[in-house]
Amino acid sequence: MFDLTPLTEAVIVGNAPKAKELTQKALDAGVSPGTILQEGLIPGMAEVGRRFEEREYYVPELLIAARAMHAALDILRPLLTASDEVQPLGTVVIGTVRGDLHDIGKNLVSMMLEGAGFEVRDLGIDVSPEKFVDAAREGNCDIIAMSALLTTTMPSMKLTIDALKEAGLRDKVKVMIGGAPITQEYADQIGADGYGEDANQAVWVAKQLLGIAR
Asked: Which of 82, 106, 128 is where one domain is finished?
């Protein structure tokens, strides 16, 4: 039986080359991609999230661990896509709103969501309400996640929610928002379903919105 503990540890400490190497070794040893994901990578990111919550880790450590997880996922993703072995927890369409070119926070949330088992479709930066609506209209989208770092771009979040309503799609997707200037009060004000203060909380909120036990 191939021991996936070293892979989990490589993710926790943020050793991307080691995570990649151990993922390939596990595959070569006949371990299924789904098992590597569920028993190697996801436990690692769960521990990283716990350490972040307990303030043992901060954003740099979170980012380094997420990159290690991504190095492994780059190998696994094509294999997971080609099989029905693992069903994602849900599909999240994420983007930084129109007029905002910041992506570090968004990228970190994307990586944490993937590490938790979600399928993530990243629309990038400067995403218009219309693009979010188009993504929702294409289907297979459970959550729209919007990020903003500038107070001047925050109104685009409300415009996006309004656009989803006008398109008749608002009741088909959950909407969560986050970013430095965003608060729970603002989320309530514009009618968002959830607000994440940081990348780790964003994962928790996404699970709550879809009724998934933490």
From this structure: 82
